[in-house]
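Batch manifest, entry 17 of 40.
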Amino acid sequence: MKKIIYKYFFSEFIRYFAISLFTFTIIIWTIQAVNFLDLITEDGHALSIYFLYSLLTISKALTKLFPFCFLIAIVFTIVKFEKDNELIALWTSGINKIKIVNLIFFISLIIMIIQLILTNLINPTMLNYSRSILKNSELQFVSSLLKVRQFNDTVENLTIFVEKKNDNGIYENIFIRDEGKILTDISGGSSTIYAKSGYLGKNEKNLILSNGSIQKLEKGRKINVIKFDKTILNFSGITTKSISDPKIQETSSIEILNCIKSQYMYVNDSKCPRYKNNFTDTKIEINKRIGMPFFIPLISLVCSFLLASRKNRKDSNYLHKHLFFLISIMILLTAEIAVRYSGISWNYTLIYYLIPLIAIPLFYLGLIKTFKYENIS
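Output type: structure tokens
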């Protein structure tokens, strides 16, 4: 009988958790996807790269939503059981309230472990893979580089300026500064390309220029000028300068811990030079990955107070439900604030981890004391 009840409670929780997680993830992903449109319009990446990159960033949203969706699912599950008088049926059948608390706490431990896996393994891997996709992606739309009356430097060592575009799709007065032999393979240093007019090829990877010149800076500061009536610039294989180096969020937890260790021991580790100038943010990131999931069990115990009996149900039911929901929200906000200070010093880091480790047994003892005086066998 008890196993059936526990499975039913767990299934209801999973239902609410999945619905809330899916709903909020879709909302956040939609907002992020709109922000990522610059990958197409500004950086010239292909649509397939845009959608794949957007999908891979879902893991980042999931890790942030897990504690909040857990809170919503637990509250909704308990309220649903109470509204349908299923809690009364449980108590009258002889089930001890503290056993339901243990069930809720056990569920929270499962969610905590899943979030630890997400934050420390899955999320950094997927984000790093999404970054590698951008790094290895070729420029697909040359038109994204041709901005009227704008200096476009999306491609590294390449700056393009277009004065005008007429109704026939012809670009006029095109200036291109090539500092890395990207478009011109003429020996020497940097080059400047000027053309009176130009248009895109059918595959949008070629730029056909007319009536212009190529000014090449050679050694000795000598400028060599090559005039042309027509020339074709091929943009195939060119990549944009979208951020290709992994950010701290895209780095594995093991690498971050090794970098923190090397910094603390004053070891010059060549694998993590980008973290040495931002050591505080490095500690904040690892504390967020490891410490934040431990606030989930704490939230489960706070929500478990909703199981307590109330004498004047009609008067206190509304306030009772919202009180513990607000307390749980405050705990999540406190966790977010505390983790931002946890990187300042090791004392703040210790305090950050001690908050859930001390609060969890205190709230559990409070639940035992609360249910001890209720007439439940």
